[in-house]
Each structure stands twice: as C-alpha cells, then as structure tokens.
Specification:
Oligomer: homotrimer
Number of domains of chain A: 2
CATH topology of the largest domain in chain A: UDP N-Acetylglucosamine Acyltransferase, domain 1
Shape of chain A: flat
Number of strands of chain A: 40
Distance between the termini of chain A: 93 Å
Low-confidence stretches of chain A: none
CATH class of the largest domain in chain A: Mainly Beta
Mean pLDDT of chain A: 95
CATH superfamily of the largest domain in chain A: Hexapeptide repeat proteins
Radius of gyration of chain A: 28 Å
CATH architecture of the largest domain in chain A: 3 Solenoid
Largest interface: A-B, 62 and 61 residues
Chain lengths: 346, 346, 346
C-alpha cells in the first residue's frame, strides 16, 4: 500500500506543507523514521526528533511551530495523535480484511453463517452454531455446538469456544483464548473428589477484547458474563459464574475466582488475584500483584497489597516495612536507655 | 431433551408432590428459574426463593416443610444437592456423548484405537499411539508419537501431548493444555546457555482433571507424575520431574518448579509459587499467592505469605504490618517521653 | 535404538571397563537404572548408587575410584555430566528428526520454504511467508502472512505466529506459544475504550527458546524484541514494545509490561511482575514473585519483594516482619515500664 502526503491529508482533513506527492508505504515512530515512512509528532517531548527524522511525511498538530528547518513533508491536522491512531486503524483494518472459506475447514450442515465471513483452514464450526455477518475465524479455531457469534467479531487462530456460549458483536478474541471450559468444581467424597458438572455457559457482550491464552470458564448453572466494552489482557483466568462489569480493564495474568462480581469501569493491574464470591464496586482500581480477599463496597476505592487495602496506607506501610531494621534498632536502643535509666534511678 | 417430574423422580428415587406430568427441558438456579426449568433447593438460605420461583419443578430434601404455598411441582429426595448434581452429570454426559471419526483427521497407521472413540476433525494421532476405549479427542488436538491414553479419557479442543507421555483412564484435559513440553533446563556455557535435552515423559494417572491452558513439562530423565485423582485448575505450570500426590487440588495460575514432590490430599490456592527440589507433606494447605521456599515436613500444615509460614502467624503478623504507622508512632512517642524523662532526671 | 558400551565409548572418546558388548536401549537416572539402561555418575553424592544400580552401563568420570565391586560396565570419560548431556542431545535430535509435508496442511502458493522442512498436518503457512532450511512446524500451528522463520527453527504443535513477525535461526517455540498478538493498548474515550491499532511486529533473534503457552505481543509501532540466546519458560507474558537482552533467562509465569527494556544476562524468577516503561540493567537478578516498579540502573543488582528492593535487605526485613508480634510486645513492655518509671519519679 502506497499513499501520497496529499491522500493522507485528504483522509485526515489536514493541510500539506511540503511536497504533496511525497510517497509513503509504512508507518513508524518519529525516532525510527526512514525514507518512505509516515510518522507523527504529538508529544512535545519528542519535538527535537522532527528536525532530523528520515521519515518522508510527519503528521503534526495544526499549531506546531518549527524552530529549525524540517526536511520532511508535514501534514497538519487538528489532533496529530488521534489522526495517526485513525490511520493505524485504517491500515490494520485493510491488513486484516480477510474473507472467504479456506479449505479444508469444517462447518456442520446445521450451522448458519452471515455474509462476508472469513473461515480459516482447519477451523471447526459445530452443530447449530450461528455466525453473524463479517465474522472472521482464523485457522485452527474451534466453535462448539450451539454457540452464537455476533457481527464483526474476530477469533484469531487457535481460539477454542466450548458449546452453548454466546459472543456478541465487535468482539476480538486473541489466539489461544479458551471460552467456556468447565468451571473448577469438585465435591469431597470419601477422600477423593467428585466432579460437579458445569452445564452453564459464557456470555460475552459487544466490544469486548480478550488477550492471548486467557481462559473464561463456563458457569456451573447460568452464565459467566463479560459485559460490554470489557478489555482483558493475556493469560487471564476468569472462573465460573464470574461477572465483569462494563468497560472494566484488566491487565495480564490476573485471576478471578468463582462467582465474584466486578463492577463497571474498574481498572485491575497485572497478576492480581481476587478470591471467590466477592462484590467489587464500580470504578475500583487495584494495583498489580495485589490479592483481594474481601468485597469492596466503596466505588472508586484504590487498593494495593496481599491482602489488599487502601493504596496510600499500603504505600506508607511499605515504607515502614523497608525501615523495619531501623525500627528494631530504635526499640533496642530504647530498651537499653530505659534499662540504664532504671538502674540509675534505683 | 424433555422430561416429566415423574421421570425425574424415578431417576432419583424421589416422590412427586404436584403434577407428575409437569415437563422440564432445562436446568437453572432457583433464583433464575423460568417456566420449563428444573431447579433444586438445598441451602436453607435460599428457601424464600421457592415460594416465588417460576421454575416448573423443584427438587427438595425429603423433610422440607413449606411455610407458604408453593406453585412449582416438587420432587422430594434424600439429598437434594446430590440428586441435582447427579442430574447435571447425566445431562452433561448426554451432551458430550460424541463418537465417530470426523474428517479430515490424521491417525498414523501404526496407531491403535479402542472402541467407540471420538476423533474430532483436524486432530492428529502420531506413530504407535494407543488410544483406549471411549476416548474422546476434540478437534485440533495433537497426540505425539508413542503416547498411551487410557479408557474414557477426554481431550478437549487444542490439547497438545508431546511424544512418549502416558495418560490414564477417566482423565479430562481441557482446551489448550500442553502435556510434555520440554522442561526448562539450560547449562551456562561461556556466557550463553546450552540446552539440556529433556528426554523423560509425563505420566498422568486415572481420574485426573487439568484446566485450560495449563502446562505440564516432561522430565529431563524419568517422569513428571500427576497421581490419581489430582485436580488442576487453569493456567497452572508444572515443571520437569515434579510429582503431585493423589487427590491434591490446585487452583488457577499456580506454578511448581522443577523436581518438587507434593504430597497427597493437599489444597493449594491460586497464584501460589513453589520453588524447586522441595518436599511438601501430605494434607498441606497453602493460601493463594503464597510463595513456598522450603520443604514442608509436617502433614496438614497450613501456610500463607511469600515466603510462606504458618497461616495464623501470618495473619497475626499482617495485622501488625497494617499497623506499622501506629507502631512507629508509639516508638517515637517513647523516644520523646524517654528523652524528657532523662532531661528531667539529669 | 540399541547401542553397545563400546559404541558409546567411541562416541564420547571414553574407555570401557567391563563388557564392551553390553547393550543399552534407554537412558535413566542412576537411582532408577534397570537392565538395558545407560546412566551416569557425576555428582559424588550419588556415588553409593553405583554399587547397586541395575543399569547395564554407567558413564563415570575418568578418575572415579570404586570402593566396592561394581556390577555394571563402566565407560570412563573426561566429564561424565557433559558426556551424558551430549548423549541426551543426540538421542533427542534423532527422536525429533521429522521431515516432509504431511497432508492436509496449508501453504499459500506465495510462501517459500527451504530444504528438508517438516510441515505437520493441519498447519497453516500464510502469504509470502519465508521458511528457512530444516524448519520444523508441528501440527496445528499457524504462521501468519509475511512472517520470516530462520533455519533450524522448531515450532511445536499449536504455535500461533501473527502476521509480519520475524523469527531467527535455531529458535524453539513450544506448544501453544502465541507470537505477535495485539499489544494491550486502549484509549479512554467517553467512558469506554477505543482500541489503539497494534501494527508493529515481534522479532525473535537466534537461539531463543520460549516455553509452552507463553505470549509475546506485537509492538504498537516498531518491534517487540527478544534478543539472541534468551530463554523463556512457560506461561510468560511479554507486552508490546518490550525488549529482552541477550542470554536473559526468565522462569515461568512472569509478566513484563509494555515498553520495558531488560538488559543482557539477567536472571528473573517465576511469577515476577515488571511494570511498563522501565529499564533493567544487565546482569540483574530478580527473585521469584517479586514486583519491579522502577528502573534498575546498577548492573548485577539482586532484588526481591513487591515492590522489590535489594535482596539482602529484603531478607533481613522479612525476618523482622515475621517478628512483628515480638516487636509489638517489646513496644508495649517499654510503654508499661516507662509509665511505671514516670509514676515512680513523679
């Protein structure tokens, strides 16, 4: 794909300064620009790069004022960062615009697919599955019986969706994600464990994105639910009957135990553990590696630690934890002084 | 699948109270019952739901005494929870009762399979593999050369078993599980690392269940062993030459380093880390997010912390950790008082 | 495969002591030797096993002096451990020496492959992919468009490589590894999140090994880079734009957040978390379960804790953490004594 500075300006409603015919065929960071690349300048801390960049075209804010000569052609726009993000998005959409049914693939005759889908080779679509329009299923993916997948949803290679799960529109599941595996339910029984059958499902609402190799277990009964707009990073574990509220964002390797309900607009760091059967209020933030052992009822609370408590208290306490040798020294000094004083006064 | 209240009562050796011909076609929680659904009441805390539930049939304990009129048909049994679990199990078994060889799939001519197996499309069975009776291998799974898989074992989609591994009867491996990847063994060698070949295998005994995307590495020499009845949750890491004793249960995202031996009937929480070359006694319990850095010799010990120690001590200590600002205040008050006293007495 | 003691001695430039025609067909640990097995004695702590081992042939150091009769045939070599490791390696190479194209597999006509490759059934090779010589791609793997894979590189089953990634020579990717998934980049936008397209790639240099189900995200722009000789264990998360320096070794379940640069020759334990946008100096060691929240500028620093600090300080501090109840007792004793003293002196 090759574009001229003028074509880019037209797309972004910007103004060219320099050679409108300047051609670009790739995107780069400003500090890594090379001939033929298009980049952007939004963060003032990176301004010095614009004078030496080898990129051919740079998108800048409308009000950018050069203090030295700039060799590259500029495209001035209202908001350079957003314009560049838009370009990335267009580029990505074109790059990933696959359609058609590759062979061999497996679609049960009872399954139904919408228009313009992509079904990669070695992908499996089970009985009674319903695929929406423009669904993209990359190779080596598996969709179990009775699943429903909404419009414009993408499953990257090797995604596995167990039977009976429901996935909304505009959802992205990255490679290796497992949706609907059995919840971890066993009953003690004479010294060993008997499995509790997990016959619920997983419901994933619209605009959810789930990172590579994350696992979302099906409910014992009912549904594990990932609400609209939730973003999960890689290698996250979501246990049976969990519910994650709208627009909550969770970083990699976090685990949420069974039946916990997480509110909307929460931000949860990486490697956090949350025990089962809790309620986490809306807008809660949890620092990386924290362990949450009890419900959080106050919206917007920010926590850290394992077990976690208020983050400012945690930070203050951790400073003292690091000073424990000093505190111990003070205590023994006190003991000594006091003992001397007692001797003196006796 | 549709059943009448009478058919369910016959299956569970229960007694119908209400309409024996009442039909149900799905299972639900009592608080989510709807017309046509079957549910149960076992936990007294949920008793109030029975008077309003829209479920058509409710399984209750034989001695349940209604204090208000109940609209639903009841099936009274000895133990409502166990009866319902039994129904779930029957339902699940029927739902997952797949057999036959889907095409395309790959089975090396030297492989041997028992009766009534299911081999999903795009599954791969290598040289000299032996599959027992009623083995179910879902699509996109891989079984390397010389593996042996026992009767009634299920591999969900995308399971990968490297060569030479041995898997018992009634084992369940969930989607994305990797059995027998190389142990992490490298020797420093002139500033870089030389791989130590990992030529052992993994042995998984009967009635083991392993959750989605967990990884069990093969031994360097000999075997990594998962004993009978062990239950592992999702995203668990088991390193080379580890042995996990019978009926031990481990929650998600826990990692066990090389050559560690874990006893029988242990319960290990999520996100626990256990270092290599340790011995963990039988019946030990380890709280979530703990780090175990030395062997645990006392059976039944319960631990928490990183590094972990006795859980009661940990809890008591953590209370004081949270009080560190208060303790520091006390120390400086003591210093001040003592200093005043010394001035006064001098 | 069957060998005589003499053949093994010839391969290792060793000397036979006993029956040169003694046959072995498997490798074992000395404490688990059985007739027909070959083992070794390198660690003096295991010397007592040599007098009773049932192994047929034992490789020993040249200078080993038996204090009792040894039944097994010996092969004396310069360095028993290294010789045995060499044998393991030869054995493994033979065992994994697969070549040929299994069917069905999918290779886009625009893809190009070197000589003697192995392409397992149900593997997918996208447009314009370049595969080097002797590349081994096990079944159910996926290689997206425009990827380049060097010579002698092995992808075990179910590896997924997104488009545009570059993988060097002699690289090993274990089962379920995901290379090049989208980085976790979202912009707040009116209460929900808008995806930032991730159009960079992943570059993996020569001699890298990555463990099962680990995930390496592609860069937003530019490249996430895993340098030469890096060894990553299972279930590791590497976020977008991260760079890991040469010969750094990382244990299982560790996560590294976006844009962090890790130096050469670092050793990072399991379940460590490292936040984004940090610089970690060369030769740094980080204990398991630590959390690194700020850059580490001093080469060779060793850290522990969450947040992590100097490991000796951490260990000293953690001893005092465990003694907090004792310290609290001392403080209240001091308070009491001081209070008595004040009463007495007033």
């Amino acid at each position: 794909m090759e574009f001229t500075a003028q074509q880019i300006a037209d797309l972004l409603q910007g103004i060219v300064e320099g050679n409108p015919g300047e051609k670009v065929s790739k995107l780069s960071k400003i500090e890594e620009g090379s001939p033929g690349s298009l980049t952007f300048l939004a963060n003032p801390a990176y301004t010095h790069y614009i004078y030496n960049t080898e990129a051919s075209v740079v998108i800048t804010n409308r009000d950018f004022q050069a203090e030295k000569p700039v060799r590259a052609t500029l495209v001035r726009v209202e908001n350079a960062y957003q314009s560049f993000a838009k370009l990335l998005d267009v580029y990505n959409t074109i790059r990933r615009n696959k359609t058609g049914i590759e062979q061999p693939s497996f679609m049960d005759p009872s399954a139904h697919a919408g228009v313009e889908i992509y079904l990669g080779a070695f992908s499996y679509v089970g009985k009674n599955v319903k695929l929406g329009d423009r669904v993209k299923i990359y190779p080596n993916s598996y969709i179990g019986d009775n699943c429903v997948i909404g419009n414009d949803t993408t499953l990257f290679p090797g995604v596995k969706v167990y039977s009976d799960c429901i996935i909304g529109n505009n959802v992205t599941l990255h490679a290796g994600v497992v949706i609907g595996g059995d919840g971890f339910g066993f009953q003690p029984n004479d010294g060993n464990y008997q499995k509790v059958a997990q016959i619920g499902n997983v419901i994933i609402e619209d605009h959810v994105e789930i990172g590579a190799n994350s696992t979302i277990d099906r409910a014992t009964l009912g549904s594990s639910i990932i609400r609209k707009g939730v973003k999960l990073d890689n290698l996250i574990q979501v246990a049976h009957n969990v519910e994650i509220g709208e627009n909550t964002v969770i970083a990699a390797q976090t685990g949420i135990a069974g039946s916990t309900k997480i509110g909307k607009n929460c931000m949860i760091g990486g490697q956090v553990g949350i025990v089962g059967h809790l309620q986490i209020a809306d807008g809660v933030k949890i620092a990386a590696q924290s362990g949450v052992g009890s419900s959080i009822t106050r919206s917007g609370e920010i926590l850290q630690g394992s077990p976690a408590f208020n983050i400012s208290d945690y930070k203050r306490t951790y400073v003292l934890f690091r000073k424990l040798p000093e505190l111990e020294k003070k205590i023994s000094d006190l003991q000594k002084t006091l003992s001397e004083l007692r001797s003196a006064s006796s």
